[in-house]
Specification:
The chain is mostly beta strands and 146 residues long. The chain has two helices and seven strands, in the order H-E-E-H-E-E-E-E-E. The chain has a seven-stranded antiparallel β-sheet, with helices on one face. A hairpin with an 8-residue loop joins strand 1 and strand 2. The N terminus is likely disordered.
């Protein structure tokens, strides 16, 4: 199925989040296999996209650096976005990101060796589509040293 330009644009908004100042993510640093699937409110869905990434100790200080799929592409947080309502305890994580074009809610679970979150971007305009991205990660070993 062909993914529309609108879906791609909203996926970018979904992932363009600022740095989050909160407690550390309780993951063990290492190599993670991360899979993301994006779907719009029109029912249009992308195919699962899977990559590996090295989650380092410094990433754990910023939940959105871990739970944001575009961290794999070296995304840069948008300083105009505002992170609110950060909660991370008892194996759950949640926070909101208010951006220029959308409000994104991130909710999910996290353990020492894996996570599963849903990022739902709701546009501020009444004609745009909502986009949901499910991001799952599982530790596969230590990061390769270079």
């Amino acid at each position: 199925m062909k993914v529309s330009m609108g879906l791609c644009a909203m996926a970018g908004i979904l992932c363009a989040a600022p740095t989050v100042r909160a407690e550390a993510v309780p993951l063990k640093p290492g190599e993670y296999q991360v899979t993301a699937v994006t779907e719009s409110s029109s029912g249009e869905a992308g195919k699962p996209d899977t990559h590996t990434r090295c989650v380092k100790e410094e990433h754990l200080a910023n939940p959105d650096a871990v739970f944001n799929y575009y961290a794999l592409n070296g995304f840069k947080p948008n300083p105009a976005n505002k992170v609110m309502n950060v909660s991370m305890h008892g194996g759950t994580v949640s926070y909101d990101i208010e951006g220029v074009y959308a409000i994104t809610r991130v909710e999910g679970t996290v353990s020492n060796t894996g996570f599963s979150v849903v990022r739902k971007a709701t546009p501020k305009g009444d004609k745009a589509l909502s986009v949901t991205m499910k991001v799952d990660g599982k530790r596969t070993g230590d990061c390769a040293t270079k």
